[in-house]
Automatic annotation (TrEMBL):
Pfam families: ABC_tran (PF00005)
Gene3D superfamilies for this protein: P-loop containing nucleotide triphosphate hydrolases
UniProt keyword list: ATP-binding, Nucleotide-binding, Transport
Name recorded for this polypeptide: Putative ABC transporter, ATP-binding protein
Organism: Leptospirillum ferrooxidans (strain C2-3)
Molecular functions (GO terms): ATP binding; ATP hydrolysis activity
Segments forming domain ABC transporter: 7-243
CDD domains with a match to the protein in the record: ABC_Org_Solvent_Resistant
Length: 253
C-alpha cells in the first residue's frame, strides 16, 4: 500500500477568539477507505474540512496528506498537494456560464496540459461515470440539484485525485436522490479506489457509506467506530443524534 493517499488529522486544535471549536482532534482515513465526520450544526465540521484544504491554519496540530504535514508548506507546495485532492462542494459550486461538460473539463484545462480533444474525452467519460451520459451540453440552470451534485463529483475526479473530500453531499436532496448520491460515493471508492473524507449531518447516509464514523461534539470526538458500532452506541449524545429526539444532552437552542 502506498502511503500517498492516507489522510491523518493530528491533534487539530482551533479557536476563534475565545471560542474553542476544535480541541485536539486526531484520526486517520486509511488509503481507499471512507470516513464520515458527523455532527450537529456548529460542531466544527466545516472548520475541520477547511484545515484539510489548508484554507485555515491550525493553532496546534497538523493534517498529514500521504504522511506529509501541510500546515507549514509554502503556497506552491500546497498547490501540488491540492492537485491530489478532489473537492465536492455542498452546493456543487458549478460555473453558471459554462455547460456541464465545460465545468467538468475546467480543472483539466487549468492543470493537465492535455490537448483539447483529450480533455473533452476525459470530461465525457467522467460525466458517464456519474450517470450523466450525453447531457454535457446542458447548462447548470437547466438541470436539477441532484444532477448538479453528480456534475460536482465528475469535476472533482477530473484530475484522478487519490483523495476525495465531500462537504455535506446529501444536504438538500430528497431521500431517493440522497441514496443515489450515496451509491455514487460507494462507486467512486470501489472503482477509483479513492480515500474519502465526508462531512455530514445525515446519519442515514453515514451508515450507508462509511467504513468508519467520527462523531464530533463540542470540539472533541465523542464517539467513533464502524456504522454497526455507532448504531449500537449507548452514549446518550450519539443516541439522541441518531433518534433526532429533542430531549437529551444535546441542546436544541
Ligand atoms: N472564520 C470564522 N471566524 C469565527 N468563527 C468561526 C469561523 N468559522 C467558523 N466559526 C465558528 O466555528 C463554529 C463551528 O462552525 P462550523 O461551520 O465548522 O460548524 P459545522 O459543524 O460545519 O456546522 P453546520 O452543519 O451548521 O455547517 C461555529 O460556532 C462558527 O460560528
Amino acid at each position: 500500500m502506498s502511503p500517498g493517499n492516507n489522510l491523518t488529522i493530528e491533534n487539530l486544535t482551533k479557536s476563534f477568539g475565545r471560542q474553542k471549536v476544535l480541541k485536539g482532534i486526531s484520526f486517520t482515513v486509511p488509503e481507499g477507505e471512507t470516513v464520515v465526520v458527523i455532527g450537529g450544526s456548529g460542531q466544527g465540521k466545516s472548520v475541520l474540512l477547511k484545515h484539510v484544504m489548508r484554507l485555515l491554519v491550525a493553532d496546534e496540530g497538523d493534517v498529514l496528506v500521504g504522511g506529509q504535514p501541510i500546515m507549514k508548506l509554502t503556497s506552491r507546495e500546497m498547490d501540488e498537494v491540492r492537485k491530489g485532492m478532489g473537492m465536492v462542494f455542498q452546493e456543487a459550486a458549478l460555473f453558471d456560464s459554462m455547460s456541464l461538460l465545460e465545468n467538468v473539463a475546467f480543472p483539466l484545462r487549468m492543470h493537465s496540459g492535455l490537448r483539447d480533444r483529450e480533455i473533452i474525452k476525459i470530461a465525457e467519460e467522467n460525466l458517464e461515470r456519474v450517470g450523466l451520459r450525453g447531457v454535457g451540453g446542458k447548462m447548470p440552470s437547466e438541470v436539477s440539484g441532484g444532477m448538479k451534485k453528480r456534475v460536482g463529483i465528475a469535476r472533482a475526479i477530473s484530475m484522478r485525485p487519490g483523495i476525495l473530500l465531500y462537504d455535506e453531499p446529501t444536504t438538500g436532496l430528497d431521500p431517493v436522490l440522497s441514496s443515489a448520491i450515496d451509491e455514487l460515493i460507494l462507486k467512486m471508492r470501489s472503482e477509483l479506489g479513492v480515500t474519502s473524507l465526508v462531512i455530514s449531518h445525515d446519519m442515514k447516509s453515514a451508515f450507508r457509506i462509511a467504513d468508519k464514523i467520527i462523531f464530533l461534539y463540542q470540539g472533541v470526538i465523542q464517539a467513533s467506530g464502524t456504522p454497526a458500532e455507532i448504531q449500537a452506541s449507548k452514549d446518550p449524545v450519539v443516541r439522541q443524534f441518531i433518534s433526532g429526539d429533542t430531549v437529551g444532552p444535546i441542546s436544541v437552542i
